[in-house]
Amino acid sequence: MPNPFIEMFADDKLADKVKTRLPYLFQLAELESSRAGKIGMEVGSVRERIVIALLIYRFGEPNVQTEIPITEPEVDARLYGQPISIKTITSKSFGGVKIIWTVDAQKALQFQENYYPHSDMLLVQVNWNGMGGFYYIPMQTQQRLFNRIGRLNYIKLPKPGTNPRGVEITGQALSSLVKDTDSKSIVINWNRTKIDFDPLKRWVELWRE
Question: 4-208 maps to which CATH number?
Answer without folding.
Answer: 3.40.600.30
